[in-house]
Amino acid sequence: MHIKSMAEYAANGETPEVLFWVGCAGSFDQRAQKITKAFSQILDKVGVKFAILGKEEMCTGDPARRSGNEFLFQMMAYNNIQTMNAYGVKKIVTACPHCFNVLKNEYPALGGDYEVIHHTTFLQQLINDGRIRLKEGGEFKGKKITYHDSCYLGRGNNIYEAPREVLQALDVELVEMKRCRTNGLCCGAGGAQMFKEEEAGTTRINFERSAEAIETGANIIAANCPFCTTMLTDGVKNKEKEDSVAVLDIAEMVARSLA
Amino acid sequence: MHLVQQILFILCAGISVYFFSKKVGEIRRNIKLGKDEDLTDNSGARWKNMVLMALGQQKMFKKPIPAFLHLAVYAGFIIINVEILEIFLDGILGVHRLFAPALGSLYAYLIGFFEILAVLVLLACVVFLIRRNVLRVKRLNQSELEGWPRNDANLILVTEVVLMSLFLMMNTADQVLQARGVEHYTLTEPFWISSNFTGMFAGLSDGTLVAIERGGWWLHIIGVFLFLNYLPYSKHLHIVLAFPNAYYTRLQPQGEMANMKEIQNEVLYMMQPELAPPSDGSQPVQQRFGAKDVTDLSWKNLLDAYSCTECGRCTSACPANATGKKLSPRKIMMDTRDRLEEVGKNINANKTFVDDGKSLVHDYISVEELRACTTCQACVEACPVGIEPLSIINQLRRYLVMEESNSPQEWNLMFSNVENNMAPWKFSPDERDKWAEEMAAEA
What number is the ipTM of this complex? Predict the structure, then answer.
């Protein structure tokens, strides 16, 4: 399949339904690329007219801002907003809650006003609208699955139900961790921690969170963030459970269950 | 005799209100040392937050057991204050149980109700003391509470127990005196709780009973006056500041980080110099990016610090703290208040702040603590009164990175990658859509 860029749409004088903001992890990280591909497959299959920025996309500046480098954040934001405004972008979907939060909450003050949707919400809407049709008795039906709330989707933006509704549409047996929803425990990657060694402590945050997820007895940990996916996968490996517990993005689960 | 008591009372009340107002004035001045931040918008949503969070204690109920105990103390405190009003007026006017004649039989119900609350407060405070000192609940026994903060908490609880006991003792003696028809002791119907204990005082003489009743009355009201003056020095100040703090708490999504307009403009003028305001030849004012000291924070951050009662819900929700890192959001708030008090004392002594060579970052809060934060907002979510430790952490981090270039090597690498490769990792920007090419090839 061919994924069109905004430039291609513009060259043909067309406008896509939505811009898929891939993000750096989704673009470069091998694990996250699979999520990107799964989500693109879904969009293609259900006929959503979407575009990517391709080489014109840049880091939103989130890790720079969270670590304290406001100059770098503002530079990135300026460039991204220039690009998107030039294309007249109206609606953005992204599979990264960090990008989602910055695009939705922090770009408007800088002149970037868009309707921004996280991919789990987008999937839920497509399911509700009947655009995504799921297999009867797909591979996740009745499977014990736990869901990890990412900080920037959950506490950051109060989105707790949409991802859970998608999981319910897959007929899974959802088992909650002790710390979930507003009390959800971070995976350890936020605040630019992803890009540095943790400070000295008694254990790692992702080990703590993965242990909690494994304790539920679930075979799949469903995530909505490329950073959480990496952190939790490492945590599961640390517990030597990688053969029995998989960490999957909700988009990957939906892609595997398309009718 | 009565006149002496009256004069003494008015004197005590005057002194206590004077010193209390003086300290409140200082706290107000200290909070105003913070930077301006306009939080007057959307008053409807703000009133709602105040009613739900402060008055209704909505967020406390995430932990039901302490929530119910706290509710008893809180309701007791507020409602028993109606009784304090009577005690206060009695003291000034030199009368006894001023409201009794007017309220008739309702009066005994009212006092009985206060007594039930007093018993609940007493029991709740005893349970709180047990939780702190016997059960040693983790969040109430962490390292930042060593020394004064622990004593502060215990002192408040013991004071409440003593005040409630005095109130009940005073009423018990009062009723024995009423029954004996001693002058001044207005006859009322029996009070629900204290009437059950009159037997304890049956063998005592009128004089002793009057001494107990007057002693209880005086100790109770002096206790209240002392407590009032202790409040601004204590974590207990939250009983007042929880209300404005909940009112001014953030309304934006928790994930949103405050914008720095000055840097936004700097970048804008660099990219589009034609938009820059014409220079008037003067040197631009040197401004500090981020926060080094308390005066670089906003007034709301400083109000947060004074509103914190050190309950530790933030710290027990913090992923960094739970995994043994040095960061504790509660300590961030306690350090901010301690430093602000230090700055305040400096101003008291020197009329204006004289540099003491200290700052909030480094001297109070270490780089290691700041670097441990994942910005997960669990601390903000956990706070029952709308305090935001994360806001302070973020501003201190901005100072470290932008003013001191103090960031770990890995972050410096990440910065240079973002700047040069438009991604936090060292990949070529040309490969950003390689996955899409792969998909095209796969199909």
Answer: 0.97
